[in-house]
Write a structure and sequence with these properties.
single chain, mainly alpha, UbiA_sf
């Protein structure tokens, strides 16, 4: 009974373990620095609770999409009813809020829950820009909260704020990489995404150019060693080439996997920042103060 419940809960977030937990944990470990086991566990639990909150609500409102493209998800697979999933959503949302309040992260969770409401209940995810923007808010909150948890409740530094803001911008501009694999499911619920608006050639080449531009910009900003620079560049090239060369849904899933490896690597780059420089940088304007 307990095992089946744990399995059901884990299935809610199984498909997003790499694209969400990977970058969030990567950037938090880099920004918070070495942490102890207790802080890591608390941060991981905080992150998983918040991810589950979104996943449950998203799957309650996206049944038609899941029946078509993700039939192994727990509600459409018949492992849990919609009513029980709704109750579970409220319980986890409440636990997440209380947990955050204990570590000064209540604003983060309130912002996150508001984004979930807009994304699902207000159906703003059916618009391509709102989907990307609200998704980026989610990623910012994941990185924000997990970093603070790993750092024992300490507020974000200038470096951390800058890196997390950049993470949000990165997801806003390239997050639609996931939409190429989800074309059929999105069409089933009337969601309009960039891969559906743009021609295949324009949509895929524009994503490739964005990956190249972000790779160059992040290398310039964080100045990683040559081997890391080469590795990031090759990952970006692999992902971009995959999206361009093969337009099948299965190939897009593989290309999206490579995109996520590129994304995780990009989130590790702040580890190479020269801290002395960032002590005099405004996180809003990114311009030196002196």
């Amino acid at each position: 009974m307990v095992f089946e419940f744990i399995k059901t809960v884990s299935l809610f977030s199984q498909s997003d373990m790499v694209p969400i937990l990977g970058p969030s944990l990567a950037v938090a470990l880099v920004l918070a620095g070495p942490t102890d086991l207790g802080a890591f566990i608390r941060g991981f639990v905080w992150l998983e609770l918040h991810l589950l909150t979104f996943e449950i609500k998203n799957q309650i409102t996206g049944l038609e999409e899941d029946r078509l493209s993700k039939p192994n998800r727990p509600i459409v697979a018949g492992r849990i009813s919609v009513g029980a999933a709704q109750d579970l959503y409220w319980v986890i949302a409440l636990v997440s809020t209380v947990f955050s309040a204990q570590f000064g992260l209540l604003p983060c969770t309130v912002l996150y829950l508001a984004a979930i409401f807009c994304y699902n209940e207000l159906a703003m995810s059916r618009n391509w820009f709102c989907k990307s923007f609200l998704g980026s808010i989610g990623y910012v909150c994941y990185c924000w909260g997990t970093t603070v948890m790993f750092d024992h409740g300490a507020p974000l530094s200038t470096l951390s704020t800058t890196a997390i803001v950049l993470s949000g911008l990165l997801h806003t501009t390239t997050g639609h990489a996931q939409d190429f694999r989800d074309r059929d499911g999105d069409a089933a619920i009337g969601r309009v995404t960039l891969p559906m608006i743009l021609s295949p050639r324009v949509g895929r080449w524009s994503l490739a150019l964005l990956l190249a531009a972000w790779t160059a910009a992040l290398i310039w900003l964080w100045a990683p060693p040559a081997l890391v620079t080469l590795y990031l560049g090759l990952l970006g090239l692999k992902a971009a080439a995959g999206f361009i060369q093969d337009h099948s849904v299965e190939a897009d899933r593989v290309s999206y996997w490579w995109y996520n490896i590129w994304l995780i690597t990009a989130h590790l780059l702040p580890a190479f920042a020269h801290v002395g420089v960032w002590n005099v940088v405004d996180p809003v304007s990114f311009l030196p103060l002196r």
